[in-house]
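Q: For a teaching handout, I want to show students what a protein-ligand complex looks like in token form. Below are the inputs, and the small molecule is zinc ion. Please produce the holo structure.
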Amino acid sequence: MKPLRRKKTCEVTHDPITGQERILELTQEEDFLSDHGSVDSAGLHQRYFRDCGCDGPIGGRCFECGAISCKSCHGRCHNCQKPICLAHSKFLGTNSQERVRLCGCCFEKITRKQNWTKIHKFILSIFVEGDKDG
Ligand SMILES: [Zn+2]
Ligand SMILES: [Zn+2]
Ligand SMILES: [Zn+2]
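A: Here is the structure, written as tokens, with zinc ion included.
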């Protein structure tokens, strides 16, 4: 039986490196006349896995590799604010709660030529900022 109406919605993005179109989410809907004379709708919603392997909402795209990560994996470099995926994130921190996400470039800039005392001071300065008055 031929559907009365067909609707297809695609959420796509263009890969910055290959220039290819990538499907993020696909929604298909069909309205058709059933044997009983009613108009029925059938839908399909397809979600494509993010590059990080998760199925969550999209957080952003890595400026380095173009990978699309979910909200929990994607982040920004604390230093240059560029969007980065988990694979390209470097973390500085004393424990798992106090972690500073940096891109590879900034991580190198900060850790190179500096000893760990200075790095710890840098981390502390980030977390102390929020406690200051004004
Ligand atoms: Zn993820
Ligand atoms: Zn990346
Ligand atoms: Zn950076």
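A: Two things your students might notice: Residues 50, 52, 54, 56, 69-70, 72-73 surround zinc ion (ligand 1) (CB under 6 Å). The two ends are 68 Å apart (CA to CA).
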